[in-house]
Amino acid sequence: MGGHIYEDSELSNLPPEAWGNVFDADGPFDPENSWLEGASKDDQLIAMREWFLGRYCDPAHETPYNGREGGYLYIHGGPYNPSGELSGRFSKLVDGETIEELANELSRKGGDEWAPVIHYAPDDYDERYDLDHGSPHGPLQRLRTRIGELRMTLSLQKDATAKQQVVQLVYSALIGVLESFLWETAQHWIEEREDVLRRCIEKHPAFRDQPMKLGNVFVEHAKIKETVKGYLQTMVWHRWEQVGALYRVGLEVRLPSVKVFESPLSIRHHIVHRSGNDMGGLPINIVEEDVERLANDVEAFAKATADACFEKFVGF
């Protein structure tokens, strides 16, 4: 839910009459208006929070990162502001102070710019974001080149004030380098191997569970590879459960442990979305040794992943 902003849903605390979309089993929760208007403040907060988190997510965790150009891609709309979205839906039903209380809570936890939740693989392959289909060694070679360039950028900066900013930017960029590697590697083998493409379609829930009209069968079949590549373009490549599922189901490759990246991802979130400050407003303290450690972890993870793919598809 909501990019790991909240650990547990509180929907079970609401009475049955709270549901306004009881016949829409696949849709996100939508509260029943008349119930909401007369509900207690606590129930109103739960209902509005669940409504929002069912539709919007923290971009630090959910929005795809463009490793080539840098920055997040709001391909499906946004960014969305909690206050604006909550007021637009509930201003005639709930007191304004209660709405703003929740909006402020959401902003503290996830910022003021949220992205839409995508429930199915989006059908929006964009050739502008396509990748070059070259050697299977290419993704790892490019990752090492990018890491080397980032190290050089760090070494060239001598001004003490600017150096700290550069350290943070390079640290953040290393996560993007890893995301790009995972994207490039997955797409290479989907392009190269028909069996990988087929497993993605038949076994991955983003494709397997998509509804389709019989009249669209031939159209969808003709663009099947673009459909999968469109999904890759919009994936969040540090959402480990999603990335791991794609590799496990489609490539039949298990990724190395991602535990080493838990803290770096949190730090990157503060750098990108809080101008280098933590949730308490204190500056994030990163030194060059932290950057070097992360660079080594990224390269080791990438090499292990590349080796596993070669063992699976090439035999060595």
The spatial strand order of the largest sheet comes to: 1-2
The largest sheet, given as strand count, sense and whether it forms a barrel, is:
2 strands, antiparallel
End-to-end separation in angstroms reads 40 Å
Query: Count the strands?
Result: 2
Q: Approximately how much helix is present in the residues?
A: 55-70%
- Number of helical segments with 4 or more residues: 14
Instruction: Write the element-wise H/E pattern from the N-terminal end onward.
Output: HHEHHHEHHHHHHHHH
Class computed from helices, strands and strand pairing = mainly alpha
Residue ranges: pLDDT <50 for 5 or more in a row? 64-72
The radius of gyration over CA amounts to: 22 Å
The 3D shape can be described as flat
How much is the average pLDDT?
A: 82
User: Which strand-content bin applies to the residues?
Assistant: under 5%
Notes on the structure:
This protein is mostly helical. 57% of the residues lie in helices and 1% in strands. It is built from 14 helices and two strands. The protein has helices spanning 33-38, 41-53, 59-62, 82-90, 96-110, 138-156, 160-192, 194-203, 205-208, 217-222, 224-234, 240-251, 262-273, 288-313; strands at residues 56-57, 115-116. Strands 1-2 form a two-stranded antiparallel ribbon. α6 (138-156) packs antiparallel against α7 (160-192). It starts with 32 loop residues before the first helix and ends with a helix.
